[in-house]
TrEMBL record:
Residues 74-100 are annotated as: Disordered. GO terms for biological process: glutaminyl-tRNAGln biosynthesis via transamidation; regulation of translational fidelity; translation. It comes from Pseudonocardia petroleophila. It catalyses: L-glutamyl-tRNA(Gln) + L-glutamine + ATP + H2O = L-glutaminyl-tRNA(Gln) + L-glutamate + ADP + phosphate + H(+); L-aspartyl-tRNA(Asn) + L-glutamine + ATP + H2O = L-asparaginyl-tRNA(Asn) + L-glutamate + ADP + phosphate + 2 H(+). Heterotrimer of A, B and C subunits. The keyword ATP-binding applies. PANTHER family: GLUTAMYL-TRNA(GLN) AMIDOTRANSFERASE SUBUNIT C, MITOCHONDRIAL. InterPro entries: Asp/Glu-ADT_sf_sub_c (IPR036113), GatC (IPR003837). This is Aspartyl/glutamyl-tRNA(Asn/Gln) amidotransferase subunit C. Belongs to the GatC family. Pfam families: GatC (PF02686). The gene is gatC.
């Protein structure tokens, strides 16, 4: 494991992150970061070379149904519930005040 995180390193990180940190917080954060980095180092020591790296603990399988072509609505059926239609399309109020 590497050396403990210093107050100066925490102050440098705080400046990079643009965080306002008090002197008391520097000591607290230095201790906390040291514990976090120590824990990460321990996890690295536990990982064995005979265990292959994986992205998922269980195998993935496709849960989607296959695509099946089905008939859809005709143009007349689709427009049958519209308040207004024009030239085979939905007619909506003009909102931009421009001519198309």
């Amino acid at each position: 494991m590497s050396a403990a995180i210093t107050r100066d390193e925490v102050a440098h990180l705080a400046r990079l992150a643009r965080l306002a940190v008090t002197d008391a917080e520097l000591d607290v954060f230095a201790g906390q970061l040291d514990v976090i980095l120590g824990s990460v180092a321990r996890v690295g020591e536990v990982a064995a070379d005979d265990i292959p790296p994986t992205s998922h603990a269980v195998p993935l399988e496709n849960v989607f149904r296959p695509d099946v072509l089905r008939p859809g609505l005709s143009q007349e059926q689709a427009l049958s519930g519209a308040p207004e239609s024009e030239d085979g399309r939905f007619r909506v109020p003009q909102i931009l005040g421009e001519e198309a």
